């Protein structure tokens, strides 16, 4: 997930400070991927360093005629940022480019299974059963979240949250199908080994 591009996309609406950006992101994604406020401020610092955003209000209160600036929910000064021209181009480029799939992210479960089949003493059947139970529980949780969604599905906010929850449901369903496939392949491989006598048995 790209926090950098998400921050730039949100800033297309206008200047915001870090806590606002975190709230906007979590509201639009149903808090599915909670953001650490420290991560938000670190990202903002890097975006400013790279010339993609700039400070529009230092948070000391001068712009609002205050003696002291306000603080956000994290106790930080409300330093507001806006997109630069380069930042706006970067946000536009993100929306108009497909997410690359040429280098798929490392999947911990796939790596675990790949190692398990090559190492002695690992009960792969039990590994798959436990994972299936955990994935089924996650699927039920996502389904409950869809049913209990309070935002109007016809509203922009409801549509955004619905799309995120659909993605989570589809991902977990695909993982369950893949686990079924793995179990089936392992059974066929075990049967083939049993049916083919080893060289030791031929002697």
From TrEMBL:
Residues 106-186 form the Transcription regulator PadR C-terminal domain. It holds the Pfam family PadR. Residues 7-91 form the Transcription regulator PadR N-terminal domain. InterPro entries: Tscrpt_reg_PadR_C, Tscrpt_reg_PadR_N, WH-like_DNA-bd_sf, WH_DNA-bd_sf. This is Transcriptional regulator.
């Amino acid at each position: 997930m790209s926090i950098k591009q998400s921050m730039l996309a949100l800033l297309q609406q206008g200047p915001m400070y870090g806590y606002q950006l975190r709230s906007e992101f979590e509201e639009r994604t149903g808090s599915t991927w909670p953001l650490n406020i420290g991560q938000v401020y670190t990202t903002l610092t890097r975006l400013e360093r790279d010339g993609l955003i700039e400070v529009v209000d230092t948070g000391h209160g001068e712009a609002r005629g205050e003696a002291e600036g306000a603080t956000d929910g994290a106790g930080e000064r409300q330093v507001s940022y806006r997109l630069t021209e380069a930042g706006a181009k970067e946000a536009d480029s993100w929306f108009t480019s497909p997410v690359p799939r040429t280098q798929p992210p490392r999947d911990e479960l796939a790596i675990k299974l790949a190692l398990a089949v090559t190492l002695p003493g690992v009960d792969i059947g039990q590994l798959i059963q436990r994972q299936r139970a955990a994935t089924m529980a996650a699927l039920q949780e996502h389904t409950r979240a869809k049913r209990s969604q309070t935002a109007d599905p016809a509203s922009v906010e409801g549509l955004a949250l619905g799309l995120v929850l659909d993605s989570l449901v589809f991902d977990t369903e695909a993982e369950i199908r893949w686990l079924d496939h793995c179990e089936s392949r392992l059974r066929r491989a075990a049967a083939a080994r049993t049916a083919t006598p080893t060289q030791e048995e031929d002697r």
